[in-house]
Amino acid sequence: MAPDYHRNNLLTPWSNPAEPQIKFPIKPFEQLLIQLGWTNPQAWLNHWNKRGGISLKKACWPSAIGKDWIWGLALPFLTLLEGYLDKNGQSLVGISGLPGCGKTSLGFWLEAVAQELEWPVVVISLDDFYWPAPELDRRMQGNPWGVPRALPGSHDLDLMTRTLDIWFKSGRLHTPKFDKALRSGRGDRCGWRHAKPKVLVIEGWFLGCSPYKLNKTGTFMDESFSPPLNRSELAYRHIVKEELKSYLAIWERFETMWQLRALDPSYTRNWKADQESTMQRDRGICLDSEALEGFVRMILAAVPQACLDATPADVMVNLNRARQLMWVGQKGSQVSASSESAIG
After folding, report:
1. Is 2 a member of any domain?
2. Residue 145 is part of a domain; what is its CATH number?
3. Which of 97, 102, 53 is nearest to 79 (CA)?
4. With CB atoms 3.0 to 4.6 Å apart as the test, which of 173, 187, 269, 337 could cross-link to 180 if both were Cys?
5. Residue 250 CB partners (closer than 8 Å, separation 6+)
6. DSSP secondary-structure letter at 20?
7. What's residue 2's pLDDT?
């Protein structure tokens, strides 16, 4: 008798018909579950449905979150974390993805679920290690996009290294916190966080990205920009490249990394605008239109997209403009979403 994936009228990736919000192909997703230790999809469904399934800490998601995010990303990521809790010692896990793609929302939900399940899991951002305001301003001075943060070089990597050293040795985590709403949206540190997690998740937009080869003019392969990169942008790319070298020792400490990848990098313009609208609604402050455009231009121009795509992630999640999951699976087995039949 075939497994009853449609039991209790709950639509899942394996229902017939499938959950209509799910667009990603089923085969690479199943292969990912096998890699995570679950060879039987029904057993995996039962495991999480006993804990609430798609309703688990539902209030902690943005109202527009799709069920594809829960089935295809959130619950598999929880499965990953649960596996690390059974291992000896601490585990460092990364989430990479362009600004506004949903990393922060995912991290907020993961922490809420971890607290409910009494799991020693903490989620922070690479951004929490931004320099304090005076040093941050000094280091960002002169960048051609006028951004107050976010570029490689804006983080205190010595502090981050010491923080991870202490955590790996003692289990005690003491991390700074950064509030992007302070200083009229320029941001500043706003205190410290203390915890004793067994698993630490860090998210960041260029997490895992390595230095890249540029030609003498500062371009990379067959890039195309409108308007074209100007001389200041091309020159500053060499600075960014050198700064990225300082992050490599940090990247090497991650046990695994998942990447949320935009099918078109231009999507970050809409995503970042949504992010700023939320900031305005919740905090009464956001980047003005000129600053927002400079930020988006920096994201698209500072680091070649091909280099971000080459991030050595173990799992890839492809997102369309509406942030729908179009492909989920191990990065080494990735195929084009357009070349493989999607379910639904």
Report:
1. no
2. 3.40.50.300
3. 53
4. 187
5. 157, 160, 161, 164
6. T
7. 41
- Count the Cβ atoms, other than its own, within 10 Å of residue 129: 23
Give the pLDDT of residue 217.
67
Rounded to whole angstroms, how far apart are CA atoms 92 and 298? 28
DSSP 255: S
Task: Please give the structure tokens belonging to residue 71.
Answer: 């089935």
Which pLDDT score is estimated for 173?
98
DSSP track, 139-183: HHTT-TT--SS-STT-B-HHHHHHHHHHHHHHS-EEEEEEETTTG
pLDDT value for 338: 36
**CA–CA separation, 80 and 123 (whole Å):** 14
H or E stretch including 39?
none
342 in any annotated domain: no
Residue 174: inside a domain: yes
- List average pLDDT for each run of 10 residues in the chain, which is 344 residues long: 50 88 96 97 95 93 90 98 95 96 96 97 98 97 96 98 98 96 92 97 97 74 80 93 96 98 93 85 82 92 90 96 97 53 33
Distance in angstroms between the alpha carbons of the first and the last residue of the chain: 23
Residue 1 in any domain: the answer is no
Rounded to whole angstroms, the Cα distance separating 110 from 75 reads 9
